[in-house]
Amino acid sequence: MPRQIIATGGAPKAIGPYSQGIVVTGPAGRTLFSAGQIALDPATGEVAGGDVASQTERVLRNLSAVLAEAGMTWGEVVKTTVFLADMADFAKMNEVYATRFSSQFPARSTVAAAGLPRGARVEIEVVAVKEG
Q1: Which pTM was predicted?
Q2: Which of 68, 82, 101, 122 has its CB surrounded by the most CB atoms within 10 Å?
């Protein structure tokens, strides 16, 4: 299957040996597998926001840029994985997260992580499918 590396200036550059996303094209269409995004501001490379709500908003903007670079939208996201530094942040993260979806929510796993890169409070990755 052909693979396309996704790289956009609208999301932070990878801080390790990985891509922002990979699109795989097969008989069912195109599938995007994103890297986990934390609340890095792509302009400064610094973590943006101190609380989980503002960090979640920055993470979702980063993921929006990755989706756009792949020619996809939030409506094509079928699975997300959310990593939280503290499960006590779940409700605040969830409130911001819900703003990206209308009526059809993707499948989701939410996991408490012992630590996230750069002391982030939240990290999110997506899988999106574009038929055709």
Answers
A1: 0.94
A2: 122
